[in-house]
């Protein structure tokens, strides 16, 4: 992986606002990363200073080893769960209508 891609993934993760979530796949799509697993690897190795708790698996659940801390941090931001699952239809990061499609939003 090149440094440019690494930084682009970090930039996209950093732009997910409080009260919203994105999936590893969303971040991969916006940043141009070849897979959601690469996003997870970057977060695991170099994500301590990022809002890592806002990034979820495709089904809206947190990583099993982070579930309690991740859900607690999300609740503090107003993201509510149904058990251990976040409703992606309600809380998924959405692009502002006037957005130019840059890395500050998904859709």
TrEMBL record:
GO molecular function terms noted in the UniProt entry: methyltransferase activity
UniProt keyword annotation of DNA damage present: yes
Pfam families, A to Z: DNA_binding_1
Domain Methylated-DNA-[protein]-cysteine S-methyltransferase DNA binding: 5-79
Any GO BP annotation: methylation
Keywords per UniProt: DNA damage, Methyltransferase, Transferase
Protein name: DNA methyltransferase
Organism: Amycolatopsis regifaucium
């Amino acid at each position: 992986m090149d440094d440019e891609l690494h930084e682009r993934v970090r930039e996209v993760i950093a732009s997910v606002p409080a009260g919203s979530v994105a999936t590893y796949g969303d971040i991969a799509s916006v940043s141009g990363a070849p897979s959601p697993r690469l996003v997870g690897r970057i977060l695991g190795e170099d994500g301590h200073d990022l809002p890592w708790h806002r990034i979820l698996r495709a089904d809206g659940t947190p990583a099993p080893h982070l579930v309690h801390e991740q859900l607690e941090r999300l609740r503090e931001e107003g993201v509510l769960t149904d058990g251990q699952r976040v409703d992606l239809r309600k809380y998924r990061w959405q692009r502002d209508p006037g957005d130019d499609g840059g890395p500050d939003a998904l859709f």
